[in-house]
Amino acid sequence: MSQRRTSSPFAGANFLLERGLRDRIRLAWRLYRDPRVASKLMTAVPLLTMIYVLSPVDLLPDLLLGLGQVDDIGMIGLALLFVTRVVPMLAPSDVLEEHLAAMGLRDDTRDAGQGTVSRPVVEAEFRVKP
To answer: Which pTM was predicted?
Structure first.
């Protein structure tokens, strides 16, 4: 059985993450790399999280095996939650829309006269056997 290789940094963890969370992480990563989105807050949150995780001073000391690492994992989770929620708000709306369209999360096909977004329609027929 051959394995499909991909260049995505999240390829190995795709099965662990729900689709919406994975898309928010990908969007935040794309916005981080875009030079048009510049904010000190975007750089400060990962930097402060890394300093906290590597610092010997924690809320729970790392000498307590298991419990000492829980606060580090919790801080990483909070930083990830913060980044995925706040970074899209810091980006200019046109840059955000451009990245959403490039990721396939926005449908940019518009009807010529009406300006409405055309969506595909799926028709299905179901039969229930008794």
So the answer is: 0.57
